[in-house]
User: Which sequence fits this backbone?
């Protein structure tokens, strides 16, 4: 025999020593049945003869003969080792071809053609680092499926019974965190790459806020949120106001002195004259500056007059300058979060900010300027897509006329009607209100941009707080599949659902154990800088299992509407009975989560899953399995969580009524959308009535979608159907430069090219 | 001379257009996040966005 045939069909020269080596390796692995070199040569010789006699040339055939020969000549254990070795290599080869197929797609297909490159809409799959991230992600998923996950969980994920979110990060980290900037900024902090001093102006506060979000995002697999943005930035405003007040105050004295009043008192005012003196916006009395300068002794009354005049001047000058600087700080904040890179440059950080309840003059200044800069948009008037902004609605603070921040609520409505942000969270919702303590931001519910909510705490009832906590991981159940498999029997549905829930809880705990074994040094910022609750009590080599018990382990769901369709032929938008059953199903899931929480002392919670890639994945698998079922598998997506299907015509108020009860059940997060037509910025009344109705109905977190288009050529922002209302071009058409120049004289936001 | 050249260029520029093949930007919300262009949506989400109906008030 001169040649053999390799697996890919190509010929290669026959080499008997390769057989000898393989047998030798298998024998060595066993440790008994010792084969001398004579034995090895003998077996190899026999194998070669069998191959010649049978004219066997294919690699797989050769390996079969090796196995048989080893068994025949009494080397059973060696044969077994050889078989294992062979199986292992088959697995690796399969892995290789599977992974290599994916890698080829990632490498050579543009994102527009390959769905796999658009799994996450905010990652640019065409860039070097975006592709690198996908290589890592796909390799990791394969590893997790084949070597880490319990067999049943892995099989259930692959077949589409459940979906383990962020599976590629299974061995690495947690989902998200609500960051309290105030303790972080106090006395400065380190990002793990360098040390930053405590910030001293609103500009620095906003810049370091971005740094903190970016640093934390790189240590977790989900998004980051600032639950108290207004309270945190207000301290920066206070410091800026102080600077501006002191500057104006001294300038006044200097000028008054040069005009011959009070003998150059500016010189006499010591450098630390304001140290320890409180300077706040709206202060009516002139500060008492001690010690009184020597020059002034004996001229007390003139000095006193001068100080009062300087105070009046500084009090009128400093707020305007502080306001301007706050605007610029907020503008920079939003620009940064839309442009700064995270995760090796593959994306911008997924950032969210919550605000609206700080009614101090400084907090109000932050909110006002943030809203104004959001309305103005980015450099060319583009809509900022980050951070996700969430305005916290609270009666008595900002919801009704006469509330201290009512004007800011109105401004938030106006901003959202133009820019889609802010969304609105409702602190008065029956499940959010019990936690609320007036003036304590740590008791106010906050939402992650994706909708995640973390507030209750079964692990430590005395720490039911917002800051320093987040979700650990979540896994979703494919509800439509259960609906199909139940074949019209609700009893069967609930029994199948219980099986799935059992599996998901087991899997979440499996992951929790892996997460808990990590050490503080694995998260130099999140844990090393004490951002996560109680992590400041740990040393770099301590395990994190105790502190991450403050986080949530979450079960989610998708496609309640399709599940109901499969079960009783109607979804909850169509039929009251379906709504009743829908509430039973989600209520049951919540009860199971509560019971598991009670049993384990861990925060098992229920989320209305924010499904991006999943909405298509489940339905594709189910269509393959069950065919095209009308109302169930006949679209390209499953309906998000408990939502009334997007294609179903329903009035806005009715949709809110139908979805509100599910908010009360989904304690790990929820959102309700209303789609309004036309340019809502021209009809804010309709917009406001929707938000007020959400408040009334007990919605936790809601938002209004409306068309928001922009023509990059002339800078028009609003609704564009076929023709741009400003420059008159259709999509893809050119515009005369003279026309653009003329437009620029009317609209300053026409981009310059 | 120089002025003449400038004038000629300006006259030519009157017929110059910009923006050919430039698409309109359509900002939409997906799972809570805004996305600046529908191109980045995956196939299922594109279909979902297409199917969305408006809710009257």
Assistant:
């Amino acid at each position: 025999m001169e040649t053999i045939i390799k697996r890919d069909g190509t010929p290669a020269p026959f080499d008997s020593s390769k057989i000898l080596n393989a047998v030798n390796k298998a024998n060595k692995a066993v440790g008994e049945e010792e084969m001398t070199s004579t034995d090895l040569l003998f077996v190899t010789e026999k194998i070669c003869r069998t191959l010649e006699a049978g004219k066997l040339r294919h690699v797989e055939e050769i390996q079969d003969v090796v196995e048989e020969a080893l068994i025949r000549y009494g080397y059973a254990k060696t044969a077994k080792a050889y078989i294992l070795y062979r199986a292992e290599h088959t697995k690796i080869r399969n892995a290789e071809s599977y992974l290599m197929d994916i890698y080829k797609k990632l490498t050579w297909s543009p994102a527009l053609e390959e769905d796999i490159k658009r799994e996450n809409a905010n990652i640019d799959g065409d860039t070097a680092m975006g592709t690198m991230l996908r290589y890592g992600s796909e390799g990791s998923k394969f590893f997790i499926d084949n070597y880490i996950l319990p067999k049943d969980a892995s099989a259930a994920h692959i077949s589409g019974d459940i979906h383990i979110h962020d599976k590629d990060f299974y061995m690495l980290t947690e989902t998200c965190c609500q960051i309290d900037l105030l303790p972080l900024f106090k006395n400065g902090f380190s990002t793990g790459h360098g040390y930053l001093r405590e910030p001293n102006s609103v500009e620095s506060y906003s810049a370091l806020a971005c740094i903190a979000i970016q640093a934390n995002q790189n240590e977790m697999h989900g998004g980051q949120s600032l639950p108290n943005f207004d309270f945190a930035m207000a301290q920066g405003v206070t410091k800026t106001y102080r600077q501006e007040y002191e500057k104006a105050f001294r300038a006044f004295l200097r000028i008054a002195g040069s005009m011959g009043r009070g003998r150059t008192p500016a010189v006499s005012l010591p450098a630390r004259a304001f140290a320890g003196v409180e300077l706040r916006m709206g202060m009516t009395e002139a500060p008492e500056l001690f010690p009184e300068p020597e020059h002034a002794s004996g001229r007390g009354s003139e000095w006193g007059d001068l100080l009062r005049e300087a105070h009046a001047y500084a009090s009128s000058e400093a707020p305007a300058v502080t306001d301007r600087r706050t605007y610029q700080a907020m503008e920079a904040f939003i620009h940064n979060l839309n442009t700064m890179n995270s995760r090796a440059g593959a994306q911008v950080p997924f950032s969210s900010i919550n605000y609206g309840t700080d009614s101090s003059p400084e907090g109000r200044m932050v909110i006002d300027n943030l809203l104004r800069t959001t309305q103005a948009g980015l450099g060319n008037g583009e809509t900022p897509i980050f951070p996700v902004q969430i305005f916290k609605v609270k009666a008595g603070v900002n919801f009704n006329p006469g509330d201290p921040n009512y004007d800011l609520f109105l401004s938030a409505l106006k901003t959202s009607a133009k820019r889609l942000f802010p969304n609105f969270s409702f602190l008065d919702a029956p499940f959010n209100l019990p936690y609320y303590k007036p003036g304590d931001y740590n008791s106010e519910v906050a939402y992650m941009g994706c909708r995640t909510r973390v507030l209750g705490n079964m692990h430590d009832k005395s720490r039911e707080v917002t800051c320093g906590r987040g979700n650990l991981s979540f896994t979703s159940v494919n509800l439509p599949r259960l609906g199909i498999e139940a074949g019209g029997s609700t009893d069967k549905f609930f029994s199948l659902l219980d099986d799935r829930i059992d599996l998901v809880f087991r899997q979440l705990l499996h992951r929790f154990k892996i997460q808990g074994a990590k050490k503080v040094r694995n998260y130099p910022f999140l844990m090393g800088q004490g951002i996560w609750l109680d992590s400041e009590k740990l040393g770099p080599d301590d395990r994190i299992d105790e502190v991450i018990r403050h986080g949530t382990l979450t079960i989610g769901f998708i496609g309640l509407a399709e599940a109901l369709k499969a079960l009783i032929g109607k979804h909850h938008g169509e039929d009251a009975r379906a709504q009743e059953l829908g509430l039973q199903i989600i209520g049951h899931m919540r009860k199971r989560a509560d019971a598991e929480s009670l049993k384990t002392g861990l925060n098992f919670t229920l989320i209305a899953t924010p499904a991006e890639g999943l909405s298509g994945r489940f339905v594709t698998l189910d269509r393959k399995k069950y065919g095209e079922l009308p109302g169930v598998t006949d679209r390209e997506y499953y309906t998000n969580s408990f939502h009334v299907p997007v294609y179903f015509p329903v009035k806005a108020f009715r949709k809110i009524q139908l979805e509100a009860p599910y908010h009360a059940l989904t304690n790990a997060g929820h959102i309700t959308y209303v789609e309004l037509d036309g340019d809502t910025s021209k009809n804010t009344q309709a917009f406001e009535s929707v938000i007020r109705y959400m408040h009334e109905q007990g919605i936790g977190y809601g938002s209004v979608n409306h068309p928001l288009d922009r023509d990059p050529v002339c800078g028009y922002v609003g609704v564009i159907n076929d023709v741009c209302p400003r420059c008159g071009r259709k999509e893809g058409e050119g515009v005369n430069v003279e026309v653009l120049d003329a437009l620029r004289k009317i609209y300053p936001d026409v981009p310059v090219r | 001379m120089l002025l003449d050249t400038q004038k000629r260029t300006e006259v030519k520029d009157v017929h110059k257009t910009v923006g050919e093949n430039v698409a309109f930007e359509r900002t939409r919300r997906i799972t809570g996040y805004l996305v600046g262009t529908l191109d980045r949506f995956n196939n299922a989400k594109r279909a979902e966005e297409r199917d969305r109906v408006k809710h009257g008030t």
